[in-house]
Amino acid sequence: MMNDKKVLMQVRDLSVNYKTRLGMVSAVDHVSFDIYEGEILGLVGESGCGKSTMGKALMRMIQPPGRITGGKLILDDNDIMTYDEKQMQDFRGRKVSMIFQDPMTSLNPVQRVDEHLVEAIQVHFPGITKEEALVRSSELLEKLGIQSNRMGSYPHQLSGGMRQRVMVALGLILNANLIIADEATTSLDVIVEAKLADQFRDIREEFGVTMLVITHNIALVAELSDRLAVMYAGHVVEIGSVYDVFDNPLHPYTIGLLYSVPNIRLDDEKELYKMPGEPPNLTHPPGGCRFHPRCPKAMDICSQKEPDLIEVSPGRHVKCWLFQEHPEEAEESVEVTL
Amino acid sequence: MTDMHNNPQFENNDYLVEVEHMKKYFPVQTGFIDQLLSRERDFVRAVDDVSFKIRRGEVLGLAGESGSGKTTIGRVTIGLEEKTEGEVKFDGVDLSTLRAEELRKLRRRMQVIFQDPMASLNPRMSLGNAISQGLEIHYPETKEQHRDIVLEVMEKVGLSPALFYYNKFPHQISGGQRQRVVIARALVTKPELVLADEPIAMADVSVRAQLLDLMVQLKNEFNLTFLFITHDLATAKYICDRIGILYLGKIVEISDLREVYAHPLHPYTIALLAAVPVPNPHERRKEPMPKGEIPNPIHPPSGCRFHPRCPYAQDICSVEEPQLRELRPGHQVACHFAEQFQ
Amino acid sequence: MKKDIENNPTQAQSSETPDWLLDLDKVGFIRRIFLARKWYGGDWWFVAISAVLLLFIIIVGVFPQWFAPYDPSAEVGPSLLEPGVAPSSYVLVAPIEAGEITLVDIGDKSNNIGFIIGSPASQALREATDTLNDAAPEGVRYQPRQMRYETLAEGLDALAAGEIDGFVAAPDVLENVLDGYPTLRIANTLREDASKGFVMGTNQIGQDVFSRIIWGTRIALIVGLSSAIVSLVIGVPLGLISGFTGGPLDRILTLIMDSLYSFPGLILAISIAAVLGAGIGNIIVSIAVLYIPTYYRIVRGQTLAVKKELYVEAARSLGTSKLKILTKYIFPNVIPSVVIIFSVNVGDAILTEAGLSFLGFGLPPNTPDWGIDLARGQDYVRRAWWLITYPGLMVTMVTLSFSMLGESLSEILNPKLTER
After folding, report:
1. Which has more pLDDT, B10 or A165?
2. pLDDT value, residue A145
3. CB atoms within 10 A of CB C26
4. Residue of C nearest to B178 (CA)
5. B23 CA: distance to closest CA in chain A (Å)
6. Residue of chain A whose alpha carbon sits nearest to that of B233
7. Which of A173, B73, B96, B229 has the smallest set of CB atoms within 10 Å of its CB?
8. Are residues C259 and C398 in the same domain?
9. Are C230 and C331 members of one domain?
10. In this complex, which of C10, C12, C310 lies closest to B120 when CB atoms are compared?
């Protein structure tokens, strides 16, 4: 579902580092991509690939020992990296909001549901009265499937699925343009997860909200998203429409990943692909392309030089030497002309 | 991988595990005043009358969401918890007839692979030491051979070179490797029954396939019987022979896995199977999900526990609890109106 | 591309160990220490400093004779001598007609020698007398009778009047005064200016403060370490058993320990010391009892927490006996916190011991002990500040070193440090 390709947010050359006892971890390394208005973009990868860090970085919520070491984040023609703290406080919640994995710890246990929402409104729109805020909150909650009689409940009185919906409401109540869902369904039961996924689709239809769904659940991304970005060891290695990527994965990691995901359908008889090796240690990332130690198609160049993320067909980007000219090749051609 | 297609229906009646009418209730903590007023105690009915059998060499899956009781069933079957009611037989022996010491010795034959490898390994014990614990406890007389046995098992589970990993500690290796250690530890006494409680849920996506494959290989090599607890129906497909679907402490459907997936007969199973996301954007779910949420296990709904959420519920469903009945060969389901799904 | 994947041989043994990890293992011990410095981060100097300090303290405590210039109980100098100041000279004043007499002439029992009461002159006289006695042949003994006078004037009057044979005083005191006594003059020097003083001064009795605190280290360490060890040996097993078994035993023990714990420490120690009496063994016991509840509580709490951990349940599922669970699974995971308490405990025990001695309980009064010195020095805060400053500094330093060690140990013993 590619709608008007208006870009909502541009990420350019973003880098995030963490200082750990073992050394400097480059969690996100010079990553660039666009988020289009109204789309659901899935960001997948395994644990440690940097996707959660990326999500936090988009809201400039990286805390020490982590640091955004470079790059631009452009929303509405403004680079939010240049915002001061006051502008960021306004930005967070109103332009971009986040739904976290564990709603129990991200909701204030001593605040009722309606209080959460009203507070959010009043912080960003001080002019609105409490009554107005309550009305808005209950309307939104009803839309999300929480009856008004639950509005006075405390987080611990609600189930996991309901708490997540309160988080969604918090994200929507301020009409944020972009909602980042960081492993929002990981701790939920299967049916609840399915309903929440339906909810995401609904709010996109109804509110025109753009969503960035960060998850390690490949199947969820297939169900839900329009476009898909695959991350490995701090890099985006492939990005494109979800149909393109699933039908024709290009990057060897994507291929391996997609073939290693269990499929419940009985007509899928394939054996699961076992990717060799383990996700790398980001204090000593492999040189060149970070995936090369595990890549069945690795060439010499792959251990020496890192490929760029280039567009191989409209809307499709891959970061792999298989789809780019090697400098060696280029040199060869130079020699020939000599 | 299991060649499920060529596997004939298990002909033998050699049951390693027999569970009859298992019940496990956990008392709810009541306050001091309530105790004084001696009100009737509330119980979390985690497992409420569950019966099943596991044949030697088969992998029985128990699948369900939270509150289904699957983990508790596993723990009671293997003797880590005491049942409230019912009978649990291992190789014909009723576990409750055993004294503590006898049960402890029986452990050699039934082992556990836990969900969280980091938490289930002693952080202060080296890997080799941890794996050899089973041997130390049950075969103390062959002490000299322990190290070699352990090294061999470590190689088998993929911790190679074994000598390198023998002296390492859990925090020095990756999550996938830790789970291999847990598997090695479980297998070192050559058990017959293995309880696998969500064994790959916490591993990385690319590592899960490796671990699944490893478990299948080891199962075939050592002729193991698995009780495989999972919430992930997609994964279950690759390892389980039979599968039981649990809801709120009861088995609602149980049969051969392919049979259940191809012909689900219970509304909950149908919904559950539909809810599992498929890694193929061309096959997105169109079915709606049941309304409501899993109810409180302290006060489960009357009659059929699923009836408040069931789109097919009728009056009888809230009154009479359906029993498991065989509708298709080897396929049991607990629903008054299961016929409509055939 | 898809075909390649499908034809890929699927093995279980595909978890390759990355090369750098294998290489790391081959690296030698020295390099590992340097690497340890790397992973340990910036605080390694904390450990290094506290380790060096403590090593030094322990060496001093074990071999005080290498460091202490004097015997701590010997009167080696004038009393209350300032640090660094050399003891001044003393001269013998005598009637002019007596000639240039020295102490030898007026040194025996029949002679009277006077000095100002309370002045260091008496010590100078004593020292001179002792020196003579050491050099004297058998049978000869110098022991002049000592006459004390309130003021210099009285003394000189008495000398002029012939009541005493000589008068000892410091030359600067006599300077102008002697002019008023035409019959008297400085006969001889009793004692030369000493070339060096005492680096930390002397106390009231004339003992060298520096030597005393050096020797005091030994006592402090002995008492501190012994009492900490006793507390540990009793408190830890009790905590382990109590936490592991629970039930009525646990409740009774907790009750006892909590009651002990709620006593203000020093008072409890005093009561026990009062009952047991003096002596170093009894002090160790009293202080030990003080800390047993601390070990008990911490260990019991940790045991309760570890008992619930998944790896303990995994051990149970393996068929591990209860004793083995306690010793192999619970104990090793509880020990790190104990080590930390121990190091802080020693520092604290030293403080308590100093306090007890300060109050007069426990150690025999002649022992070179910081607490005792502190007690004796309290009246001289203005006059002789060095009497309490140096012992106080030592107590602080040693306690601090042990606490620093405890802090740094808590960092090291955390097994999550080398996590990937």
Report:
1. A165
2. 80
3. 7
4. C15
5. 24
6. A264
7. B96
8. yes
9. yes
10. C310
**Record: contact C14-A278, CB cut-off 8 A:** no
- Using the structure block, give the residue that is written with the tokens 């060499």: B57
Of chain A, the percentage scoring pLDDT greater than 70 comes to 95
Q: Tell me: do C183 and C216 sit in the same domain.
A: no
- Please indicate if any CB of chain A lies within 8 Å of the CB of B285: yes
- Percent of chain C exceeding pLDDT 90 equals 13
Superfamily of domain A7-95+176-337: P-loop containing nucleotide triphosphate hydrolases (3.40.50.300)
B281 part of contact set with chain A, CB < 8 Å: yes
What CATH number does the domain containing C151 carry?
3.40.190.10
Q: CA dist C414 to A65, C9, C298, Å?
A: 19, 41, 16
C169 in a structural domain: yes
State how far the Cα of A303 lies from the Cα of A5, in Å rounded to an integer: 36
What's the number of domains chain C is made of?
2
Contact between chains at B235 and A162 (C-beta distance less than 8 A): no
pLDDT digits (tens, 9 = 90+) for A284-321: 888 889 999 889 988 888 888 899 999 999 989 999 99
- With an 8 Å Cβ cutoff, are C13 and B120 in contact? no
Give contacts of C323 with chain B, Cβ < 8 Å: none
Asked if C258 and C366 sit in the same domain, the reply is yes
Residues of C in contact with B174 (CB under 8 A): 420
> Does any domain span residue C218?
yes
C162/C101 Cα distance (integer angstroms): 15
Question: Looking at C164, C191, C218, which one is the last position of a domain?
Answer: C191
Distance from C-alpha of B245 to C-alpha of B301, rounded to nearest angstrom: 18
Q: Give a yes or no: residue C160 inside a domain.
A: yes
ipTM (interface pTM): 0.87
C-alpha to C-alpha distances, C381 to A13, A24, C73, C78, C177, nearest whole angstrom: 68, 55, 22, 18, 31
State whether C214 and C176 are in the same domain: no
**What residues of chain C lie within 8 A of the CB of A256, using their CB?**
5
Distance of residue C255 Cα from the nearest chain B Cα, in angstroms:
21
B1 confidence band (pLDDT: 50, 70, 90): very low
If asked whether residues C144 and C227 sit together in one domain, one would say no
- Statement to judge: residues C173 and C218 lie in one domain: no
pLDDT in tens, B129-186: 999 998 999 988 888 889 999 999 999 998 988 899 998 888 888 888 999 999 999 9
Residues C218 and C172 in one domain: no
Probe site for chain B from C317, C416, C417 (most B CB atoms < 10 A): C317
Residue range(s) defining the domain that contains residue C138: 90-191
Range with the poorest average pLDDT among B68-77, C89-98, C233-242, C301-310 = C89-98
Which of C159, C191, C223 delimits the end of a domain? C191
- Residue C36 counted as domain residue: no
What pLDDT sits at residue B149? 92
Long-range (24+ apart) CB contacts under 8 A made by B163-166 are B164/C17, B164/C22, B164/C25, B165/B127, B165/B128, B166/B126, B166/B127, B166/B128
Q: In one letter, which amino acid is A50?
A: G
Residues in chain B: 342
Nearest-Cα residue of chain A relative to residue C14 = A276
Token pair for A166: 């309160």
Residue C2 has pLDDT above 60, yes or no: no
